[in-house]
Amino acid sequence: MSATVIPAPRRSAFLAGLLRLIREKPLGAIGLAIVLVFLFCGIFADVLAPHGVNQISPVNRLKPPSARFWFGTDHLGRDMFSRILYGAQLSVIIGLTAASLATFISVTLGVVSGYFGGRIDMLIQRVVDAWMSFPELIILIVVVSVVGPGMLQVIGILGLTFGIGGSRIIRGAVISVRENMYIHATQSMGASTTRVLLRHILPNIMAPVLVLFSTRVGAVILVESGLSFLGFGVPPPAPTWGGMLSGSGRTYMYLAPWLALAPGLCLTMVVYGINVLGDALRDLLDPRMRGSR
Amino acid sequence: MRAYLVRRLLALIPTLFFASLIVFTTVRLIPGDIIDMMIAQNDIGSKVSRDALEHALGLDRPMLTQYLSWIGGILLHGDFGNSLWQQNPVGEEVFSRLPVTFELGIMALAVALTVAIPIGVISALRQDGLGDFLGRSFSILMLAVPGFWMGTMVMVFPSIWWGISPEVKFVPFHEDPIGNLIQLAIPALILGTSLSAVTMRMTRTMMLEVLRQDYIRTAWAKGQNERGVVIRHALRNALIPVVTLIGLQAPILIGGAVIMEQIFVIPGMGLLLLEAVSRRDYPVITGVFLIVGVAVVVINLLVDLSYGLLDPKVRFR
């Protein structure tokens, strides 16, 4: 793939990759920029936010955007800009952890199912079939309703749901790698199963794994905000973007439309950035998946 | 064809069995107790003991017995149990709500296809042109816009600017078909456009692939006009994976319908589920959960069977 790149220190390989992204996939580079800004806001929310996240100020209720309150204030006089920044933080945490968990589950299930095949594969795939016949949102609503809302619950359930669904993609990748000559060679040399899996299968499915992870981050953020909107996410007063669009906030949107605008626009931009970046990564990393979906 | 159908139906058995297990265990095993809620809400704790209430609702039996009697009731009598609160049969309640969600889903699907297929085809025909660029940008953007935000905006802004707010009271189809369709049009439009993104990209990819085939060159060479080549030869072959995608999107469609029903107060399955969840009404939750799962499985089976209509090369064996 990178035949023209002369062997060089790692850092410049990274830079070369970045340059290639900018040159070949300008849209993907825009996505990367959006994602970086979003990460920055999330990580440094405590420093960047001009007001406290739950700092109530009855005098400043429902103020339109101004120099002091960039995105206006809500019905309790909380600064929307600060809440959006802290919301980015929550989204970063939930998006990254739940997507990591999901990817881990997908890889574990997919590798076991795809590599061993036979009865194990059969059993796992029937369970995956059954699981995938339920809409994610409905599983999430049902489970959250029994476990109770909360950040850890949301991360766990999102990770599990997306993890089981994504295992199909990894299984497919493993099956195609499994039949390669070098795998058979390693096996006939007497390498242990663990060694084959970790040293030979896993490195060769890294491209789909990375693509799966990047698309999962966007999906998790979107579904989490939907859950929060329905009141099953991280409970208030946590400043989730979905939560800001629901509940008591919604009744005040008629008086203060900026309450509806900011969280939704941020959500759209971030998910857009992640999707575009994911698409570009897929095209650059995995020629087999090029153009699908 | 018959043998294929029988085999497909047999293959459904393990899937549905695991589905019923998932439904039953997620809802029962995790402690979130309806008894506590009933006692707290109805103040019946003083009159009836906790154990007696548990016994009356059948929640004191072993889990396996509960599962067997639940699944037995469904399979033998079509009995999904009764709502713990209203005591009315869950089956009736769910099936009375099902048509509304179905209507919304079909309308959304119609929107998605009418948006996606033409844009996908044009995108492929004018690959890398302006139309292609705009079409693809639109579809990626639509993937990112959350449906519940669009729904909220549609509720909020017209009412601020023009003082229009959508009718809140739901009109059933058999009472006022046109009023009903108008009411469902906006949620269907929002749901449909967000769904169209994936379908559009799939149509485009498949069209690009099919347009390079030899038989397409032959069709051009024999002097057929563009319309004939594109629609008769290319689109029909490109549509097969797109149809599969519709099956895969069924769960997303139903999930989206839940949110739309909540925003626009449409009394479908989603709203029923949300109400049941807030009251911990287990039989209703399990009923909706299971029926949604079965519906998705059936839709996917129908999708697979429809290949035969689209592609004469497909023989069911």
Going by helix content, strand content and strand pairing, the class of chain A is mainly alpha
Shape of chain B: globular
In sequence order, what are the helices and strands of chain B, one letter per element? HHHHHHHHHHHH
Give the DSSP E fraction of chain B (strand runs of 2 or more residues): under 5%
Given as residue ranges, the uncertain stretches of chain A (5+ residues, pLDDT < 50) are 289-293
Number of strands of chain A: 0
CATH fold name of chain A: MetI-like fold
Structural class of chain B: mainly alpha
Provide key terms for this protein.
heterodimer, A: 293 residues, mainly alpha, MetI-like fold, 72% helix, 0% strand, disordered C terminus, B: 317 residues, 12 helices, 78% helix
Structure, described:
The complex is a heterodimer of chains A (293) and B (317). Chain A is mostly helical and 293 residues long. Chain A contains 13 helices and no strands. Chain A has helices at 10-24, 26-43, 45-48, 80-116, 118-132, 136-147, 151-178, 181-188, 193-204, 206-230, 241-244, 247-252, 258-285. In chain A, α1 (10-24) packs across α2 and α2 packs across α4. Chain A is globular, with a radius of gyration of 22 Å. Chain A starts with 9 loop residues before the first helix and ends in an 8-residue tail after the last helix. Chain B has a domain at 94-266: MetI-like fold (Orthogonal Bundle), CATH 1.10.3720. In chain B, α5 crosses α8 (177-211), α7 packs across α10 (226-264) and α10 (226-264) runs antiparallel to α12 (282-310). At the A-B interface, α5, α6, α10 and α13 of A face α1, α6, α7, α8 and α10 of B.
